[in-house]
Specification:
four-stranded mixed β-sheet, alpha/beta, globular, 41% helix, 14 helices, three-stranded mixed β-sheet, 366 residues
Length: 366
């Protein structure tokens, strides 16, 4: 059989587009793969072979393939070849069943493919792709918004802990340094690529293009008071705001801000207005929480997002970011603020205004 290995961005996209495996199933399946033998047999496809693979796998456009030094390589508009000279850890490759077509196809596991894309991406883009890899959504082009929520039993395809475990076995391979740096800022359980980008814009340090508002978490449970039931007992339910921000430090550390990204609310009509109002009323029962909603129209307006971020900073009692050593009107301070705004606007343009596919295409061609 002819052997191919999907790697780098193609592997990341494949993993986040398919149902994740349980730890037991993944360990059993990956453990049966003789990684060294597969790597020795792998080669890059020709244009015609790549076209057939794209059709069989439901892929489109250029794809990344992993080969050993000296392996047969093609260079064409559908194939990007990556040479791997190091031994891969056990469990690094997962099989894709195309044996009926006489093909032996593998995909790099989520942890390895993340380290691979860190060879290509900037630190900012590596953070974004790490959040996508550890997310609770699956890419589904046919679904509204292009994503679907993963079931409770089949959440994120990987986690920061699993990526760190692989990094420990890769020593100083290319991409590991950037992956370690990015993981400091990666947060799990986002439910869309837009949530990932919005969370980054609000909470990354200003040096990386964020507003540095505080500690970020996605879809964390918030307890909401529902009054008393028929037995005169206090009743509670739970809500899961898209983004939860708590102060890193400061006098208002007990304050919390919830931000919901709602792409449908702008033009959804009266019923949606009622739903939004009820959600705001429910969260209003949480005494130390302030709730904001960001719509798809808001996403298109950087000035409005900037104003919203500063309102959140005011609620949380945060200081101006970046930190200023001189007065606000000094030349040095104005320069620092202008540079920070430029980086924030670049993050907004490159991540919030673009789809996941556009972001990964830019990483691949950078």
């Amino acid at each position: 059989m002819t052997t191919y290995i999907l790697s780098h961005i193609s592997a990341c996209t494949w993993n986040v587009s398919h149902r994740g495996l349980s730890d037991a199933d993944r360990g059993r399946i990956a453990g049966d793969v003789d990684v060294r033998s597969v790597m020795c047999a792998a080669r890059a496809p020709s244009y015609d072979e790549a076209s057939e693979l794209n059709w069989l796998l439901g892929l489109d456009g250029v794809q990344d393939y992993l080969v050993r030094p000296g392996a047969r390589m093609y260079r064409n508009s559908l194939v990007r070849t990556h040479v791997c000279s190091s031994d891969l850890p056990l469990g690094s490759l997962l099989p894709i069943d195309l044996s009926a077509q006489g093909l032996e196809v593998y995909v790099c596991c989520p942890e390895l493919s993340y380290v691979q894309v860190c060879q290509l991406a900037t630190l900012r883009d590596a953070i974004y792709l790490g959040m996508v890899a550890c997310s609770d959504f699956r890419l589904e082009p046919a679904a509204r918004g292009g994503v679907v929520f993963r079931s409770q039993e089949c959440r994120s395809t990987t986690s920061q802990v699993e990526i760190e475990r692989l990094l420990g076995s890769l020593a100083r391979e290319r991409g590991t340094k950037r992956a370690r740096a990015a993981l400091r800022y990666v947060r799990a359980h986002a439910r869309s690529p837009k949530e990932c980008a919005l969370g980054m814009l609000l909470c990354l340090p200003s040096s990386y293009g964020g507003f540095g508002l505080g500690e970020l978490s996605f879809n964390e449970r918030v307890c909401v008071y529902d009054g008393r039931n028929g037995n005169n007992e206090q009743s509670y339910s739970y809500r899961y705001p898209d983004i939860l921000i708590t102060p890193s430090s400061g006098a208002k550390r007990e304050r919390i801000v919830a931000v919901d990204y709602d792409p449908e609310s702008t033009h959804a009509g009266y019923d949606r207005e009622i739903s939004d109002a009820r959600r705001r009323n429910e969260l209003a029962t949480v005494g130390n929480l302030t709730h904001f909603t960001v719509t798809s129209e808001d996403i298109l307006d950087f000035d409005y997002l900037e104003t919203t971020a500063e309102r959140i900073r005011g609620v949380l009692g945060g200081r101006v970011r970046p930190a200023l050593r001189q007065g606000l009107n000094s030349w040095e301070s104005r320069q620092l603020l202008a540079e920070a705004r430029s980086k924030r606007k670049a993050l907004w343009e490159d991540l919030l205004l673009r789809t996941y596919e556009e972001v990964t295409s830019n990483v691949r061609t950078a």
